[in-house]
Amino acid sequence: MESRNSNNFRGIDVSNLQGDIDFAKVKQSGIQMVYMKASEGITFVDKKLNQNYSRAKAQGLKIGFYHYFMPSLDSKAQARHFANIISGKISDCKLALDLEVADNFSKSVLTDKALTFIKEIKSLTGLDIVVYTYTYFARTNIDSRLGVYPLWIAHYGVSSPGSNPIWNSWVGFQYSSTGSVPGISGNCDMNEFKNGILLNSSSVPQEPGNNYETYTVKAGDTLSGIATMYGTTYQELAALNGISNPNKIYVGQVLKIIKGSNSSGGNTSSGTISVGSQVKIIGSNYATGQAIPSWVKNNVYTVQQISGNKALIKEITSWVYISDLVLVSGGSSAPVYYTVKYGDTLSGIATMYGTTYQKLAELNGISNANRIYAGQKIRVK
């Protein structure tokens, strides 16, 4: 395994155990990346998650989330819980499965359970996964099927982690559990991370000089839907990508799109995008290059600021190229709908659209404002 390297990202991982963290001091100390505990099992939520997320994001630190896996509990239920808790939060890093408890399950069964979790969280979020474990556990408790996923390895007191039969390289190395970082009281886990930990690091680069751009299929995508995004037809995309059955595309598949197919340019027949415009996101990446999660799309957002060819989207505080936006047609008189995602609340949706949960409940005939469900379509305007 590779040794630590000064060119890697300096990182930490934190949970409620670290208490109140001063992320301004953390950043000033040279830390660049922070993974934070989001959830554990099927009910536990880290009580410092929201505070850690908002404070770290305000300092411009790269952010990742991890779930502490409990093998004795249902894997899919754990994945749904994790997706629910991080819904609406933007991650710079691959989602981490914290795998360090065996609960007396065999290698094969434990690996089955981990793979079920990974596939479910990928399906729910569209985001890639990294496996966190420690050297001895990798040697004794899981099998090689997990080797297709990148490794975040824990091994303390060494400059390079020990070998294991599954992985021969790492994207994350937790080298200490007793680190001292300004802004954090007590001990802190210390890490080095490579570019491979980032969500956009596996994006397929565009070949120079060709006439194509690429789109990575997300959960819920259809070929006809992607064709509509880019102003083309599913037949053309199928022919261009050698797809014999247009009803069969898979998450993570990279499709070629002819440059210029999306003729909207950020506009629709109803006008030009400007501050205050209601828009939908159709692009694959934020202006930073980070991949846009599937759950961000298909919602209506408000343009808060325009800068050159980019727009700041109010509800998610992220910059998107104007060419990757479409104006919601029909003006203010047309009804606007929102599809409920994991973790949404009626009051949160109301805040997003500048209204109250009471008005949304009345508009949609909702008798109990505390009961909405993922997939429910709610009129917001």
Fraction of helical residues:
10-25%
The number of domains: 4
Computed structural class = alpha/beta
Instruction: Give me the number of helical elements.
Output: 9
Termini distance?
Answer: 55 Å
Largest sheet: 8 strands, mixed, barrel
Tally of extended strands? 18
Reported CATH architecture of the largest domain: Alpha-Beta Barrel
Strand percent estimate: 15-25%
| Radius of gyration over all CA atoms, rounded | 22 Å
* Helix-strand pattern: EHEEHEHEHEHEEEEHHEEEEEEEHHE
Spans of at least 5 consecutive residues whose pLDDT stays below 50 are 201-211, 260-270
The CATH homologous superfamily of the largest domain is termed: Glycosidases
Shape: globular
What is the topology, as strand order, of the major beta sheet? 1-2-4-5-6-7-8-9
Q: Mean pLDDT, rounded to whole units?
A: 83
Say what the CATH topology of the largest domain is: TIM Barrel
CATH first level of the largest domain: Alpha Beta
Domain LysM: 213-257, 336-380
Catalytic activity: Hydrolysis of (1->4)-beta-linkages between N-acetylmuramic acid and N-acetyl-D-glucosamine residues in a peptidoglycan and between N-acetyl-D-glucosamine residues in chitodextrins
InterPro entries: GH, Glyco_hydro_25, Glyco_hydro_25_AS, Glyco_hydro_fam25_subgr, LysM, LysM_dom_sf
Pfam family, one: LysM
